[in-house]
């Protein structure tokens, strides 16, 4: 296709139509490169599907299939069953992936079915915290008080009134071998967790926090900084579950105030002048820190 | 009604997304590089090449100029310069 080295090196290549500074395309490449060529990917509808496969072109170098919004995990289950029948599951891994809407809202029953039936699949959720592809509507994973087009800020509203769905806990509650959260703010951690998950047999789930410059109203150059701050403030805890038990968390000895995270994003602009709402967001972070024991010494 | 909905792997290479760049582009100084590979790892386009110290460079035919490589470089060996002039 091209004599350029970077096309040979990656399993997810240049020429896709993501925005500049897209956290999702960054995470997709981290996952694809760790998984390698011997992987079959099934994709839910979403930004990732739209920008990576502008028909009749594709940015993927691995077998890749998209069917519907809700059934990426079900399609992957079928792919895995076929690989078992062919006796090739030892050499080929199956990855199913989707955005936050395709995973936590629309695709949740297919995902739950996949986890419950015990298929040998890694499900990766790229969590950009709204339906970005259709115009930034709120999803089950949109954080508290974030402005989206269906939870707009105004005189009677300060953004999304609901809390973020605890998706990793929902998946861990199936007592699967591995469920974890990761963030593109720490790319090496993403790759370590994906590698670890692919070495485990059975259903695995990883939720990766991926900033979206367009939907979050942030500068493309701040993508990594924002992802790091989400972790450092306690708003996106990095946790690892094995067989339903919380085994490891990334500790926060001195959590940063949430303002540092919020002030970089247009979707939280209205909070900076509203001390009462700001306090509520700080409470969300504090609740996470206490619930997951992020500040305990051990 | 039905047609083949398959694509050649990596065929997106024909989209020269470098034309999207508006203000800045990365300039690899190639002086202080320690070969950590972070720029290559996080580039959302995956258009950075290089495997040895001071050998990294970005493929400007695809770079959208987000500036993340310059932001993450621990040695500040990448700087964003004006996109005007060359090409």
Would you write up a description of this structure?
The complex is a heterodimer of chains A (298) and B (87). By secondary structure, chain A is of the alpha/beta class. Chain A has 12 helices and 8 strands. Helices cover 36% and strands 14% of the residues of chain A. Chain A starts with a helix and ends in a 7-residue tail after the last helix. Chain B has 87 residues and is an alpha+beta fold. In chain B, a hairpin with a 7-residue loop joins strand 2 and strand 3. At the A-B interface, helix 1, helix 2, helix 8 and helix 10 of A face helix 1, strand 2 and helix 2 of B.
Write out key terms for the chains shown.
heterodimer, A: 298 residues, alpha/beta, Rossmann fold, 8-stranded mixed beta sheet, B: 87 residues, alpha+beta, Alpha-Beta Plaits, two-stranded antiparallel ribbon, 2 helices, 11% helix, globular
User: What percent of the residues of chain B sit in helical stretches (DSSP H or I)?
Assistant: 10-25%
Q: What fraction of the residues of chain A are assigned to beta strands by DSSP?
A: 5-15%
The H/E string of chain A reads HHEHEHEHHEHEHEHHEEHH
Number of helices of chain A: 12
Measured between the Cα atoms of the first and last residue of chain A, the distance is 52 Å
The CATH class of the domain at 33-87 in chain B: Alpha Beta
Query: Kindly state the mean pLDDT of chain A as a whole number?
Result: 92
By DSSP (H or I, 4+ residues per run), the number of helices of chain B equals 2
**Unreliable segments of 5+ consecutive residues of chain B:** none
């Amino acid at each position: 296709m091209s004599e350029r080295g970077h096309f040979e090196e990656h399993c997810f290549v240049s020429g896709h139509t993501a925005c500049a500074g897209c956290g999702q395309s960054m995470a997709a490449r981290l996952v694809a490169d760790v998984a390698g060529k011997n992987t079959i990917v099934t994709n839910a509808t979403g930004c990732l599907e739209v920008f990576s496969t502008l028909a009749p072109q594709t940015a993927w170098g691995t077998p890749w299939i998209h069917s519907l919004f809700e059934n990426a995990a079900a399609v992957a289950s079928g792919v895995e069953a076929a690989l078992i029948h062919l006796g090739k599951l030892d050499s080929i891994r199956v990855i199913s992936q989707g955005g936050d809407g395709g995973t936590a809202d629309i695709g949740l029953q297919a995902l739950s079915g996949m986890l419950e039936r015990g298929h040998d699949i890694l499900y990766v959720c790229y969590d950009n915290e709204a339906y970005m592809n259709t115009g930034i509507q709120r999803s089950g994973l949109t954080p508290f008080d974030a402005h989206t087009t269906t939870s707009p800020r105004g005189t009677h509203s300060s953004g999304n009134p609901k809390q973020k769905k605890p998706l990793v806990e929902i998946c861990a509650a199936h007592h699967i071998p591995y469920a974890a959260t990761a963030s593109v703010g720490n790319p090496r951690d993403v790759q370590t967790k994906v590698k670890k998950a692919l070495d485990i047999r059975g259903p695995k789930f990883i939720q990766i926090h991926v900033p979206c410059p367009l939907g979050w109203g942030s500068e493309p150059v701040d993508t990594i900084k924002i992802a790091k701050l989400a972790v450092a403030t306690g708003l996106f805890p990095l946790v690892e579950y094995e067989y339903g038990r919380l085994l490891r968390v990334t500790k926060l000895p001195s959590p940063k105030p949430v303002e540092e995270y919020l002030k970089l994003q247009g979707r939280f602009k209205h909070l900076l002048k509203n001390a009462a709402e700001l306090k509520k967001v700080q409470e969300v972070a504090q609740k996470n820190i206490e619930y997951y024991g992020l500040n305990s010494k051990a | 009604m039905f047609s083949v909905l398959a694509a050649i792997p990596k065929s997106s290479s024909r989209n020269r997304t470098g034309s999207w760049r508006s203000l800045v582009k990365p300039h690899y100084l190639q002086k202080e590089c320690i070969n950590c590979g972070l720029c290559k790892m996080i580039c959302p386009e995956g258009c950075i090449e290089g495997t040895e110290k001071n050998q990294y460079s970005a493929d400007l035919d695809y770079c959208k100029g987000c500036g993340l490589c310059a932001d993450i470089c621990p040695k500040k060996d990448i700087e964003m310069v004006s996109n005007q002039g060359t090409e």
